[in-house]
Amino acid sequence: MSEHESSQESVDEQEPVSETASEEVLVLDEAPDPDSVLPVWEPTGHANVDAALEGLHALDGADLEAHAGQFDAIEASLRGVLDGLAAEDESV
Fold first, then answer.
1. CA angle 68, 60, 74 (to 5 degrees)
2. Is the pTM here over 0.85, yes or no?
3. Cβ contacts of residue 73 below 8 Å, gap of 6+?
4. Which domain holds residue 72?
5. Which residue has the higher pLDDT, 81 or 8?
6. Do the domain assignments include residue 35?
7. Is 2 part of any domain?
8. Which of 72, 84, 88 is nearest to 47 (CA)?
9. Does some domain include residue 53?
10. Rounded-to-integer distance, Cα 81 and Cα 55, Å
11. In a domain, 55, yes or no
12. Could you tell me what percent of the chain has a pLDDT over 70?
């Protein structure tokens, strides 16, 4: 039996995924009061972190194809902040 046939056989033997879990939907009786809904994020006071959070917030209306690139840029920005904080701790 070839490697491809073996891997195909193991795929065929898997249990079917229950569709009921993915069909569950939460339906609100009425829209929440806009005054009681918290903003997506609150400013942290750290300019680079706030810019990254704003970038995430801006993805809401962006084309889905742009998300991956934006996520990479945001992750790199936050990684830079964390690396800078780690360097500060090491120097103390």
1. 40
2. no
3. 55
4. 41-92
5. 81
6. no
7. no
8. 84
9. yes
10. 15
11. yes
12. 72
